[in-house]
Amino acid sequence: MNSIKKFAGIIWFLLAPVGMYFLIITALHEIEKTPVIDTKIQWSVFIIVFAPIAIGMMIFGYYAMKGEYDHLPTSSDEITD
């Protein structure tokens, strides 16, 4: 199970920049095709909203690759700071 978590971490880590790349490319094509302010605002909002999600996906994938999720606590007694 831990190897699946690490493999999924690699997928999450790589999926975020790829998704961001395709989102930006699509935005540039759509803005070029219809250069009105509505299109620019719409795609800017999409990029602004998706950027933190992509960063979160990369952070989650990084920690999954490191094995931080290998042992998850089963009760609150196991949680220590």
TrEMBL record:
Entry's transmembrane regions: 7-29, 41-65
Domain of life, source organism: Bacteria
Keyword Transmembrane helix: yes
Keywords: Membrane, Transmembrane, Transmembrane helix
Pfam families for the chain: DUF6814
Protein name per Swiss-Prot or TrEMBL: Uncharacterized protein
Lineage: Bacteria, Pseudomonadati, Bacteroidota, Chitinophagia, Chitinophagales
